[in-house]
């Protein structure tokens, strides 16, 4: 059986830290808490689980703090988490089994990271992250913000999920770090440009975000996932700015970097639907229903891969009076969301029209989320 050190960096995490540590403390062999300046009860909560609490003077550099946390580990493998992450019981059991059975030749184990949930608690979006790494490999974190762990060696992809339960978010913090770096005259890498654009977007500085995305595209980054995501974020900025044609062009630009992703097909469906070009909208939604998962590491929108395009097809076919088609797609939605109030209302309404032989246009409910 392998041994595991949990390494975390924290600051003012009294609202979430107990949930995190309670979900993992009995699986790991060591807990290292690196505090970067808490003024609340974070340290007191941490002391319920470990005596290994270390102070780190914050220098606006997440990678430096992560590397310091890794330096405190003494066990074979290192697990890293944020204070608002936690394991559900089924994933705790999977983790226990992994600990018992992991081949010690494995250098890194990836896990799913469940980021967002719908109203029924189903996973809406997820990615993969490298979570458990062999200490002897001396992996290092890089970049002051949106830090990443440079890995190599033998990799294992597990089906264990870490759940993200953020309760608060300081939008200005990361942006301030980037702008401080610019003020010092630093030259941004393509990855910096991408993440700086994202931070500007999060802070509703949309025009400035678009400038950074264009700089990023011009830098010709080799990272497919970032390229595709940048297209999506740029399209979102244009959508919020009311620049519809530019939004569409950014969505189509994503196809320059990879095969059509289901999320972008759905968004193009939304675009054509909003512009009353229903046949084109239907075409994009139908294409979305035929795309399988092409990858497992980038952001996955589970709704787009399952029920969302069928819901939109229900709406369009209902509006066109094509009741049988609307009913067919609503039933597919219901297979994923059997207790959804609006989906059940659609079923009742459409069955009534089918029974009466009514073919006039109707408008089914449209709730359930968007891409």
Automatic annotation (TrEMBL):
GO MF term set: transferase activity
InterPro entries: Glyco_trans_2-like, Nucleotide-diphossugar_trans, TPR-like_helical_dom_sf
Entry keyword annotation includes NADP: no
Domain Glycosyltransferase 2-like: residue ranges: 5-135
Keyword Transferase: yes
Key words, A-Z: Transferase
Protein name (Swiss-Prot/TrEMBL): Glycosyl transferase family 2
Organism: Marininema halotolerans
């Amino acid at each position: 059986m392998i041994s595991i050190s949990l390494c975390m960096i924290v600051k003012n995490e009294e609202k979430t830290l107990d949930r995190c540590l309670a979900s993992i403390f009995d699986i790991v062999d060591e807990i290292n808490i690196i505090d970067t300046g808490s003024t609340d009860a974070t340290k007191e909560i941490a002391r319920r689980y470990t005596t290994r609490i270390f102070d780190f003077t914050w220098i606006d550099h997440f990678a430096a703090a992560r590397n310091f946390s890794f330096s405190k580990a003494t066990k074979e493998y290192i697990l890293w988490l944020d204070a608002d992450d936690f394991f559900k019981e089924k994933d705790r059991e999977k983790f226990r089994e992994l600990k018992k059975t992991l081949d010690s030749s494995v250098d890194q184990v990836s896990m799913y990271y469940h980021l967002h949930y719908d109203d029924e608690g189903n996973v809406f979006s997820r990615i993969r992250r490298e979570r458990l790494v062999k200490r002897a490999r001396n992996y290092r974190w890089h970049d002051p913000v949106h830090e990443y762990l440079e890995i190599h060696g033998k990799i294992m992809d597990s089906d264990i999920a870490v759940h993200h339960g953020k309760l608060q978010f300081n939008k200005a913090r990361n942006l301030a770090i980037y702008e401080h770096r610019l003020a010092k005259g630093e030259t941004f890498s393509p990855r910096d440009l991408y993440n700086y654009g994202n931070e500007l977007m999060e802070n509703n500085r949309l025009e400035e975000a678009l400038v950074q995305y264009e700089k990023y595209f011009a830098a010709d980054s080799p990272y497919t996932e970032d390229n595709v995501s940048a297209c999506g974020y740029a399209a979102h900025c244009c959508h919020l700015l009311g620049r519809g044609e530019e939004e569409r062009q950014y969505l189509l630009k994503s196809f320059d970097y990879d095969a059509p992703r289901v999320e972008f097909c759905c968004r193009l469906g939304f675009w054509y639907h909003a512009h009353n070009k229903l046949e084109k909208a239907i075409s994009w939604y139908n294409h979305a229903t035929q795309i399988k998962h092409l990858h497992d590491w980038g952001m996955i929108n589970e709704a787009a891969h399952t029920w969302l395009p069928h819901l939109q097809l229900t709406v369009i076919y209902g509006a066109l009076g094509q009741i049988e088609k609307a009913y067919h797609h609503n039933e597919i939605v219901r297979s994923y969301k059997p207790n959804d109030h609006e989906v059940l209302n659609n079923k009742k309404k459409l069955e009534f029209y089918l029974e009466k032989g009514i073919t006039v246009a109707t408008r089914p409910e449209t709730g359930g989320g968007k891409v």
